[in-house]
Each structure stands twice: as C-alpha cells, then as structure tokens.
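Team,

Forwarding the record for the chain on the shared tracking sheet. I've put the sequence and predicted structure together so nobody has to dig through attachments.
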Amino acid sequence: MTVAEFDLKTLCERARVTPRTVHFYMQQGLLPPAGAPGPGARYGEGHVGRLRLIRLLKAQHLPLAEIGKRLKGLTDDQVDVLLKEAKARRQKQGGSALEYIRGVLGEQKANPAPIAARSALFASLMERMPIASKSIPSMGLTGSETGRSQWERFTLTDGIELHVRRPLARSAQRQLDTMLAAVRNIFEPEEEE
C-alpha cells in the first residue's frame, strides 16, 4: 500500500489554507512536521485531515492551545472518524442558511439543531480525547446553549489588555467596574505640581 504524498501547494489547496498557516501550525505543534524538510517537503492525508479538524475547532472558538491539546493524542484514523462524524451531522442537520444564522445569533428558539450539532461535535471530540485533556473545559458549550458568548476587550494601557466574556452576572459586572476604576487610577498620568 502506497501512502499519498504531495507538496505544500497541493496540501494548501486540499485543506484550503495558506502555506503561512501550515508553517504556523507546525511551529505551534498542531501539525506534525513534513516527511522531509526544505523545498522538497512531502505531506500526507494525515496533514489534510488535521488541518480540516483544526478549522472545525476554530469555528467553535477554541483557542489554538486547546486545539493543540485535543489533537495531541489523536491518531490520523481518529481524526478521519471525527471529520466523517461532523460531516454526517451537517448533512443530517439540514435547514436553511437563515435558520443557521438565527441559531448562531441566539434568536432561534424553536429549532436549536445548529447549536445541538455544534455541541454534538464537542461531545464527540471530548469522548475521543486522551484522559488528560478531558478535564479542560469545552468553552461552556452545552446542548441547552441558545447563543454564543462574546468577548469584549479593554485596553488598560499600551501593551496591556483585559478580555471579558459576555454576558456577565450582575455581581461579576460590579467587580469588573470596580477593577476598571482602580486600573484607571493606576495608569492615569500623575500631574506634576
């Protein structure tokens, strides 16, 4: 049995990514290195599958570090199984583009199929993850979720930012307001006398 091998350009076409993305993912440990280094580097179907799975997980707003942890213990065969399951769910889910958008925006109450499909993908991934990765939270996606959380960025000073996931509980919002007021006092330029 021969293993299909191809160059970087073909890999990028098959996985719909740029060469820069491939190199970045390799640097981050999300992809294994090519069979041979340099301009004659050769890639296989395992690279394509991992790139496709990374794209699916990124669509679920998982950070790259979390994606790396989940991919670390998976074989190429396990990656293929997860991709096939995700494809089957998408085909089974059906629905119009408008229904999908409403589901993503949290406006769809009667038919939560798109959200349930996203949660099912996470559940499937979590079942197949190595035990060490199962303790990592899955970004709070559950079957009862009615929308995505949003992140708000606060620039505290040059080079320092605070990222907050919305919505917040009232008590957490009060704590955030108190913290931002204290930060403003810390970073305010002092007036000279």
